[in-house]
Recover the amino acids of this structure.
């Protein structure tokens, strides 16, 4: 029983990280209809920026805050300079573009900080507390808590602010939004900025666990893609649900099925992606796509 | 008519010149370069395959590195009879004396990869564009880890080492008999690679210029229109994936033979992406310029290092050229630039230049 509870809590923690990156993917997908394959590498890059800040004796929380701000600015800048010219192009073109970003950012990270593994401090204390007889580490609690706060903040932003309304409008109907005065181009840039910030958050959360190196997000990106697809690529709530479900599911499989080890966990994510795309392409909570032929 | 004859003659001449250049090249370069140009041939074969499925059938694939891995591991397992790190595995009866050796594994590797491509195409038929990119990307990320899983067959994360298996080439490692000559191992692989590449190039040319190629392009341009004219999109997409994976499998097999071994880390996600970059550089759809794409993938890292050494880079970038990540920065930058500026790749460059010069108003659509 205790083993089960621990597996679930551990799964929720890694699921929280997948959820925040999945949410970043969904944010960009909703506003532009594009899956950003560079999301993981953007997160890695900003996490290295954070490492550099910490290395230069910036205090921990200030460094985290600065990193999120830098990530936001970077995301906006990327959209304005590189993604903007292909806004109208077919999805395949934009996919290839984000693949180019993936490789380029990976190279840039390696060139600046080298490929060697680095220690990254955790934002949370190392101790653990006992909850109903189950030892739970502060790390796990912190990750789940931060994810939930981020999701709640985003929900409030989208639901109750004028800017959030503009973002939603630009995603649903760009032409009509333009007519009523929403600056659609800047809304897209804002979406990229928010996505980059969420990515940076997931990078900072996971770096202490997997240790910081240029390829650290590649596996996480696959889980996040699986989570986003599972929840529905256009559903933010789905991304969170999908992320948590995937985290718990994979952790349970790893704990109770001997055949599933670290090597096969990636394959589980692959199977989830294939199965969902085939059986229910809109995911658990997404809206089915309708196209006129 | 005369124009057509000239065009054909020009192409035949260019092809013959290329063939002669490939044939005599090892006489003028050392084994190190022969090794590199063998790799160019391997990338060329993989690009031929990727071009069939992505360039002609219009199905984006980020999984060709994974298909290469399947071909490569097939060869490694067949040649070694299992990982040599632990106990040799007795998967094959002694009638084959410890496993199928040598070059006979290359077509088998192609077939194994083709089977994988076929099996993947069955579900992937229903995916288009973005979702296909997602699924193939997932395959590229997951395959190396999955290959490491059955450690008693694939040698786990350390892979299979073929070094010291003299049967690999027939005569030991230094000198190999080839058409009555003793040549260095690298030259041997070089010639085998380019012979296979020439045969596969001809096969691809025939296929793409015939009924099948037309059907591929019909499916790419409009599935509805293709179906209305009696082309079965599902069947042709599956065919494109299987044939394309066959090419990748052959390339992977040669890759493993050249490198004397297979390991999960020889087939990273980056390999699949590099192939896609090579294809975009060469221009989707065109066959001949794929050699340029292969040369680009192989020699870009060295070109960056060299230009740093020769002082071609500005002082500030001098040392940067030696950094391990530098080639990837350029790979990424080239891909982004090409997508933004030159969507038709190197093959489309003359046409676009001509269009820009001859049309009065060069309007961007």
């Amino acid at each position: 029983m205790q083993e089960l509870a621990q597996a679930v809590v551990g799964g929720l923690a890694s699921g929280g990280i997948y959820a925040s990156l999945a949410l970043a993917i969904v944010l960009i997908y909703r506003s532009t209809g594009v899956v950003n394959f560079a999301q993981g590498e953007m997160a890695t890059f900003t996490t290295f920026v954070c490492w550099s800040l910490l290395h230069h004796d910036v205090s921990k929380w200030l460094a985290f805050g600065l990193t999120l701000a830098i990530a936001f600015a970077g995301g906006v800048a990327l959209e304005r300079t590189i993604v903007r010219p292909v806004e109208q192009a077919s999805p395949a073109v934009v996919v290839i573009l984000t693949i180019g970003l993936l490789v380029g950012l990976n190279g840039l990270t390696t060139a600046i900080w080298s490929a060697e593994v680095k220690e990254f401090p955790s934002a949370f204390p190392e101790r653990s507390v006992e909850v109903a007889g189950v030892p739970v580490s502060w790390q796990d609690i912190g990750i789940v808590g931060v994810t939930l706060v981020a999701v709640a903040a985003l929900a409030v932003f989208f639901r109750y602010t004028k800017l959030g309304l503009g973002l939603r409008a630009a995603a649903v109907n760009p032409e009509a939004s333009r007519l009523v005065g929403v600056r659609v181009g800047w809304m897209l840039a804002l979406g990229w900025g928010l996505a980059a910030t969420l990515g940076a958050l997931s990078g900072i959360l996971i770096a202490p666990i997997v240790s910081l190196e240029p390829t650290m997000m590649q596996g996480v990106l696959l889980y996040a893609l699986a989570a986003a697809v599972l929840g529905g690529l256009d559903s933010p709530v789905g991304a969170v649900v999908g992320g948590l479900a995937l985290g718990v599911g994979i952790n349970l499989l790893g704990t109770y099925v001997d055949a599933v080890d670290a090597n096969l966990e990636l394959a589980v994510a692959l199977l989830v992606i294939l199965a969902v795309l085939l059986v229910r392409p809109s995911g658990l909570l997404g809206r089915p796509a309708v196209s006129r032929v | 008519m005369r124009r057509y004859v000239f065009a054909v003659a020009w192409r035949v001449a260019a092809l013959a010149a290329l063939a002669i250049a490939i044939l005599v090249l090892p006489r003028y370069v050392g084994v190190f370069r022969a090794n590199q140009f063998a790799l160019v041939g391997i990338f060329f074969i993989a690009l031929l395959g990727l071009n069939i499925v992505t360039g002609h059938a219009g199905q984006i694939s980020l999984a060709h590195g994974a298909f290469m891995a399947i071909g490569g591991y097939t060869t490694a397992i067949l040649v070694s009879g299992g990982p040599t790190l632990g106990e040799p595995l007795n998967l094959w009866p002694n009638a084959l004396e410890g496993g199928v050796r040598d070059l006979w594994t290359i077509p088998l590797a192609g077939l194994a990869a083709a089977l994988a491509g076929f099996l993947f195409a069955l579900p992937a038929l229903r995916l288009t564009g973005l979702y296909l990119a997602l699924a193939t990307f997932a395959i590229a990320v997951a395959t190396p880890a999955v290959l490491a899983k059955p450690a008693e067959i694939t040698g786990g994360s350390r892979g299979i080492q073929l070094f010291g298996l003299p049967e690999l080439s027939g005569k030991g490692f230094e000198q190999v008999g080839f058409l009555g000559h003793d040549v260095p191992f690298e030259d041997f692989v070089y010639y085998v690679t380019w012979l296979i590449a020439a045969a596969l190039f001809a096969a691809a040319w025939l296929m793409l210029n015939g009924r099948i190629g037309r059907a591929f392009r019909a499916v790419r341009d409009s599935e509805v229109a293709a179906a209305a004219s009696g082309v079965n999109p599902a069947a042709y997409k599956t065919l494109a994936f299987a044939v394309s994976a066959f090419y990748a499998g052959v390339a992977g097999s040669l890759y493993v033979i050249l490198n004397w071994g297979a390991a999960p880390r020889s087939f990273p996600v980056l390999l699949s992406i590099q192939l896609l970059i090579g294809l975009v550089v060469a221009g989707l759809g065109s066959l001949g310029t794929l050699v340029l794409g292969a040369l680009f993938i192989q020699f870009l890292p060295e070109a960056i290092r060299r230009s740093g050494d020769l002082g071609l880079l500005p002082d500030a970038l001098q040392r940067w050229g030696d950094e391990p990540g530098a080639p990837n920065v350029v790979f990424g930058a080239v891909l982004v630039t090409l997508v933004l500026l030159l969507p038709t790749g190197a093959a489309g460059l003359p046409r676009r230049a001509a269009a820009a010069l001859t049309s009065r108003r060069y309007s961007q659509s």
